[in-house]
Amino acid sequence: MLGFLVLVSVVGYVMSRAASGGLDDYFLGGNQIPWWVLGISTSTSNFDMAGTMIIVAVVFSLGISGFFVEIRGGVGLSLAFLMVFLGKWLRRSRVMTSAEWMKLRFGTDTQGQAAHLLSALANILLSLGMIIYFSKGAGAFLTHFLPFGELTCTTVMVAIGLFYTLMSGLYGVVFTDVLQMILLSFTALYVSVRAFWLRPEVQLPKGFLQLSLERPALADPFLADLTAAGELAKVAEWEPIFEVFALCVAMWVLRTVMEGMGGVGGYTDQRFFAARSEREASLLTLEAIVLSLMRWTMVAGLVIMGYHLVQQGGAPAEAISRDSEAVLPIVLARMLPVGVKGFVIAGLIAAAMSTFDSTLNAGASYIVKDVYESYVDPKATGEQLMSVSRWATVGLCVAGVSIAAVVPNINQIWGLITMGIGAGMFVPLFLRWYWPRFNGFGFAAGTAAGMGSALVFNVALSWPLYLAFPGVVGSAFVGAVAVTLLTEATDDAILETFYLQINPWGFWGKIHDQAIARGRITSEEGGALWWEKINDLIAVCFAVPFQITLLLSGMTFMFHDWPSFAFFSLTCGLCTVGLYFFWFRNLKDAEQCAEEDARYATQGGS
Q1: What is the pLDDT of residues 210-222, one digit of tens each?
Q2: What is the largest CA-CA distance in the chain?
Q3: pTM, 2 dp
């Protein structure tokens, strides 16, 4: 463990020279990082320790139906949309941050500045939430293995991640992520292989392999265990969800589709802004999806090992029955030999740090680029901005760790981020691509209304999911649409430039025809733009089931559920064929991407 932490620190120090050229180098790697490195980094950043603890707990408690619960965020289904179309749209934007993107869409006047500022503040808040989530999960995990308190463990992890992120920016983040993926691969492979051969000795509960939208078969035993353990707060949290499980799953799917079609901001968008071309932006996402299979086979393996300990009885079984979030650390402590245990724990530390460093780097970019340079000191030199970026990184760290010290549990933070604060941003992020009339004032109002209502409904009032989520989305929608219709539309010239640069889906017919009438594109070029959208729409219908069935085939393989494994594998194979014809064969080659970038640079970014 110590060797790993020293190694990532050394890599961060070595990469510091590459990141010293300016903000583009520090936050985007100078657009020179290969796609396969960014793909590994994207996958590693989604493979976090705290999230893995939650996913293991949910699947252990609810059976394979727990997969439906994790559509709320753990599955990472937005990657399917990013792979087909959203990733290339982000790369075509040619900006540094999601907040800076607002100026491309809404212009640089008052409405553009309003959208820009609210987007920056929202993303800073979301980054802070993710840092709190990391800090809480990392501390809780390490206390099972180290003779220190939660705050001490968190502080050590944060200090090391802070060091190499400060030194080398995105270069350090992505290249340490490659090292971390090597450790994670070993971890996932070891756990998966051992659990696969252990599976015949393990008796899974009745209904465990039942994948259904009805009330999960294990819901009642799960609630009974929580009641017996005195976890009444968790009973109150889960019971309403089980009562309307299909409705909650529908809300999670809606949330994920909105996220996938609108974007998520933060460190996810940063990978696509940093890609060398739109082709590489698409390929890096495919790699991230395929690599995520390892996480889900490992989750299944840890669940199998957890039930093996339960069958043996004793103190571990009692601890797991009291808190299913303890399955991961207890399994590692009890079922792995010395030496291997160290590698596996180091791998999970790597998972945690990969999420932390990505979030930290992205959060600092919003503070520096979108707040300080835009509104505090527009004439700041490159050296001054680099200095501010490092202070911003430290400030986010300190704030996150301080708040994490008083937060009660990991699942509460994750729920607030995914279905609360994050959900408040989905409506304006979605509308910005598809509704030309949507303006910067509407974006600012929708973001403020969504995030404000998320804090009220989820924190102050503690509403259940089936009330809070519609309330948050409805508040954001009403605020965004009402303010948009009551204020002046974005100038047609700005919308036309945006449309021709990005070619988004939606109600852009008037702008499309206007561009042809003004001679900015020919009728043939206009037809090609429409065919690209139609092709992408067909491709995404293969991409979503491809990702879902890929992950489910891995889980059913681990559980020895051979009929389900055959079904999911066959479906995944058919979707792969569809993706080849409707997605992969239509990716622009390197020469076409280079020509477009050169034309954009020649036209001065217009």
Answers
A1: 998 888 888 888 8
A2: 77
A3: 0.85
